[in-house]
Design goal:
With 178 residues, the protein is mainly α. It has one domain (4-163): Ferritin, core subunit, four-helix bundle (Ferritin), CATH 1.20.1260.10. It has 5 helices and no strands. The longest helix is centred in the first third of the chain and has 30 residues, at 4-33. The chain is globular, with a radius of gyration of 18 Å. 31% of the residues are buried. Bound molecules: MU-OXO-diiron. Residues 17, 20, 50, 53, 94, 97, 130 line the site of MU-OXO-diiron (FEO).
């Protein structure tokens, strides 16, 4: 059975991960509207990963005899003033999520809930990668500044990120006509 305090925090983390999913889909919409389809693609890949993160916590709670109670999502941002602002938000959001994973890890240790350690350790590594990747893109965006050619080159590069096979966010995995 999962520790009660950890259960509550993990249940809230499902909401945080689903909000992350929603945030990245919103950013994808912004980039598509600006014809930056490579950046939109990157955000769609990211959103897919966030749904997986939510489901990892979802399954962990159920595997340990708890019941997930889904919470309301807040209205998320739908407009940005620049490409740079989107990446700034991305980087800051990942830092926020890292803080949440650290809180979960602290609770699991205080409550001696050692069964959750492998899961939380996986998330710590994942956050290291997500902060590093989004921080690097942000720095590159700062480097190119207002140079449109630089933005387009970055757009191309970010469009090369691979989807997990069969991802529902991958438009090549489905047809809107069927
Ligand atoms: Fe699930 Fe990007 O943290």
């Amino acid at each position: 059975m999962i520790n009660e305090r950890l259960y509550k925090a993990m249940n809230e983390q499902i909401r945080n991960e689903l909000e992350s999913y929603y945030i990245y889909v919103s950013m994808a919409a912004y980039f598509h509207a600006r014809n930056l389809d490579g950046m939109a693609h990157w955000m769609r890949c990211q959103a897919h990963e966030e749904m997986i993160h939510a489901m990892k916590f979802f399954d962990h709670i159920h595997d340990r005899g708890g019941k997930v109670v889904l919470m309301n999502l807040k209205q998320i941002k739908t407009e940005w003033t620049s490409v740079r602002e989107v990446w700034q938000d991305t980087y800051e959001h990942e830092q926020f999520i890292t803080g949440k994973i650290n809180e979960l890890t602290a609770i699991s240790r205080e409550e001696k809930d050692y069964t959750s350690e492998p899961l939380l350790s996986w998330f710590s590594n994942e956050q290291l990668e997500e902060e590093s990747t989004s921080g690097k893109v942000l720095e590159q965006i700062k480097m190119v500044g207002d140079n449109q050619t630089g933005i387009l080159l970055l757009d191309r590069e970010l469009g090369a990120r691979a989807f997990s096979p069969g991802s529902p966010l991958d438009p090549t995995a489905y047809s809107v006509a069927t």
